[in-house]
Amino acid sequence: MSASRFIKCVTVGDGAVGKTCMLISYTSNTFPTDYVPTVFDNFSANVVVDGNTVNLGLWDTLISKASYENVSKKWIPELKHYAPGVPIILVGTKLVLRA
């Protein structure tokens, strides 16, 4: 069955927070144990929604390391500026690293 729709999903955020790990885990059902900095990568997954196959294009980006505050001060405003009206999903990762 070929995909009837394509949805592009781009990850943005600070470095070393788990973006690549999340995408690898979702697309391959494995969990990488070693950290390898990402320059740019993309993944693909087909999912069935209401009986229709949807191809998810999952794009991983390189972002410089910064702080948690960048979510509200940098990333959300940037997304709203360059992609107004696009749904934003906030995913928290690396919960075990919280102090």
Automatic annotation (TrEMBL):
Gene Ontology BP terms: small GTPase-mediated signal transduction
Major location (coarse): membrane
PROSITE patterns linked to this entry: RHO
Keyword field: GTP-binding, Lipoprotein, Nucleotide-binding
Magnesium found in the keyword field: no
Signal peptide: none
One Gene Ontology molecular-function label: GTP binding
Compartment(s) where it occurs, according to its Swiss-Prot or TrEMBL record: Membrane
Family statement: Belongs to the small GTPase superfamily. Rho family.
The protein, known as: Uncharacterized protein
